[in-house]
Write a structure and sequence with these properties.
The protein is of the alpha/beta class. It has 28 helices and 15 strands. About 50% of the residues lie in helices and about 10% in strands. It comes from Phytohabitans maris.
């Protein structure tokens, strides 16, 4: 069913989704067929350029009760639509893609204008940004997909598209306010705010515009209207941003600061000034999470314990801070002792930060309340140290234009529709750079060979390099070569890998102890393999288990980042897996320790309710 890619495109065909669903050829409206056929087209358009799975289309068409001929019927609908739109519809990877260009399609034009407007805002060109955003909001002609109001998937798509328009409209309104164009804002904002009474960015724009036009009493009355409605329907108070604006207007200071909308202060932990490497990963994360970039709502940053997920997330968030009107929130999901924080505790804490001042909501009510608040904001949420999918799902926005960056040692494979970015160990050069920043570049250059030995003994793990760098910085009289010799023995190495409350051994204990006993024992056996990279057949031989059991064990260890898949060049044409050098040394050291030392160093298993987790809230690596 794979068609040649758009070989017979008709350039005069246009598509409209932001309002009534329509296709026009040469300006004439085209009959799109029966409702189910129209629904298929609408869903393909709502995700233009992306694969819409057959299962999703089937669910939308028959709502969980498809006939035996469902796939055949879907193929008939697609064939009929191809006669209308040409070979724009392609079958790819168990789904369909509809290819259209921005000049043909109102939704893509809106997104193109909105992206350009936000880029101009970042560049400081406020008039240009407002002009581009004005082009975006002019693409909107009404709520999309209203004819499919009884189809849950279509309703969700409609809400998602409406959120994109609202975000662009709010950017436009704030830009107009910053330019002093108050009348332009007031001409039409009532209709938008009336449909979305809890969008506080709209409230801020309208209040500021009213005050800017000298209509102070109306601005204050509008705030009181918002306050009463939120108290009555949500049981909460307006955010600190809206309340602060009210106080300024009341005091006769109606003008906003530069940029229009006051922003919430971010609560990011301290960034590390000696952060090294990760240039490609940082650029990729910024591109994915940029509020004006691709429609990626959730990014999961994964990797081994001590590899620097938290500090990479913090640096990413700092680069993105100015791109989110409502700021950045950093949310540690683990307590200082490494245990998971109860989700109710986390959610109530978030609500307090956002200005919630009522009584603590009972369990079961905090999460919906949090989502209602988040749906009205454009924020970057950093969820640090996720230990399972449920804790992440509870905090994700259901609607709105916020983005979420999650750090976890787990792949969190149960999360749908997320992008995963994996961190590996640093290169030798990056480790030497980090070490030089901590102990002095001259000291590293003068003993380069020993410094290379040292970072290799650390397995090029950022946390381990940082710990040894800290200790070496306090021992300026000891040559790096002599210190490296001291670490040749495994037991000595892990005794040295601790400085203050930073302990590589504790980090590895927590990491390994987070998995169940059977795969933990398998990890011990794999650490004794003659090479750090091994094939699946070697794993079967080493574990002496059936292939099904081996595959499940490998999947568990991969999920927890305890094993990795080598580069494609290394694993070409065969199934290969690897274990990091430091983890391998640590597991072997435990197995070869003297009996009393081994008992003291035994890897503690987590309580049953724990799953493979990630690092603590404090930054643990560059």
């Amino acid at each position: 069913m794979h068609d040649d890619h758009r070989t017979d495109r008709e350039p005069t065909t246009t598509f409209e989704l932001l309002g009534r669903l329509e296709v026009r050829k040469g300006g004439e409206r085209v009959d799109l067929g029966p409702p189910k056929q129209r629904l298929v087209l609408a869903l393909l358009l709502s995700r233009a350029g992306s694969v819409v799975p057959v299962d999703r289309l089937t669910e939308a068409l028959w709502e969980g009760n498809p006939p035996r001929t469902a796939r055949k019927n879907l193929q008939i609908y697609v064939a009929a639509l191809r006669k209308i739109v040409g070979n724009r519809i392609r079958y790819v990877a168990s789904g369909y893609v509809l290819d259209v260009e921005p000049e043909e399609f109102d939704l893509l034009r809106l997104e193109r204008y909105a992206t350009a407007g936000r880029r101009l805002l970042r560049d400081g060109d406020l008039p240009g940004a407002v002009a581009a955003l004005d082009g975006a909001i002019r693409c909107w002609h009404g709520i999309p997909l209203t004819e499919f109001a009884g189809v849950p998937i279509a309703v969700n798509e409609s809400d998602r598209l409406a959120a994109r328009f609202l975000s662009a409209y709010e950017d436009w309104a704030e830009g107009q306010v910053a330019l002093g164009h108050y009348a332009e804002v007031l001409d039409g904002i009532d209709e938008v705010a009336g449909r979305h009474p809890f969008r506080e960015r709209l409230g801020v724009a309208k209040m500021t515009a009213l005050a800017g036009c000298g209509r102070t009493a109306e601005a204050l009355a509008y705030y009181d209207e918002i306050r009463q409605r939120m108290a009555r329907e949500l049981g909460i108070q307006p955010s600190p941003v809206l309340t602060a604006l009210y106080q300024r207007i009341l005091a006769g200071q109606s003008q906003p600061g530069p940029g229009g909308l006051s922003r919430a202060t971010n609560g990011l932990p301290r960034d590390l000034p000696d952060f090294v490497g990760r240039r490609d990963e940082l650029n990729h994360l910024v591109d994915l999470l940029d509020a004006g970039g691709p429609a990626v709502d959730v990014v999961v940053l994964t990797g081994p314990a001590g590899v620097g997920k938290t500090v990479t997330a913090i640096r990413t968030a700092r680069r993105l801070d100015g791109r989110f009107a409502d700021g950045v929130m950093f949310v540690p999901l683990r307590a200082r002792d490494g245990r998971p924080r109860p989700i109710h505790e986390v959610t109530v804490g978030l609500l307090r930060q956002l200005g919630y001042s009522g009584a603590s909501p009972p369990p079961g009510e905090a999460v919906p309340l949090w989502r209602a608040w988040l749906a009205e904001r454009r924020m970057l949420l950093v969820l640090d140290g996720a230990m399972d999918e449920d804790s992440v799902r509870a905090l994700l926005p259901g609607l709105g234009d916020s983005r979420v960056l999650v750090t976890s040692r787990l792949k969190l494979s149960g999360l749908d529709a997320v992008c995963r970015v994996a961190l590996a160990e640093l290169s030798t050069m990056e480790c030497l750079d980090l070490l030089g920043r901590m102990v002095g570049a001259g000291r590293v250059v003068s003993d380069r060979y020993a410094a290379e030995r040292l970072v290799e003994q650390c397995g090029r793990l950022p946390l381990a390099v940082r710990v040894l760098g800290t200790k070496l910085a306090m021992l300026p009289h000891i040559p790096i070569s002599r210190y490296a010799e001291r670490l040749a023995d495994d037991q000595a190495l892990f005794a040295e890998l601790a400085a203050g409350d930073l302990s590589v051994q504790a980090c590895l204990d927590d990491w390994i102890g987070s998995i169940a006993p059977p795969p933990r024992e398998s990890l011990r056996q794999l650490a004794c393999m003659p090479r750090p990279v091994f094939g699946r057949d070697e794993v079967v031989t080493a574990l002496g288990a059936g292939t099904g059991s081996v595959d499940r064990t490998i999947a568990t260890l991969l999920e927890a980042s305890l094993l990795f898949v080598p580069d494609p060049e290394v694993a070409a044409h065969q199934e290969m897996y690897g274990m990091s050098a430091l983890l391998r040394r640590y597991v072997r050291a435990l197995m070869t320790a003297p009996p009393r030392a081994a008992a003291a160093a035994a890897i503690p298993a987590r309580p049953p309710e724990h799953r493979p987790g990630t690092g603590s809230a404090r930054p643990t690596g560059p």
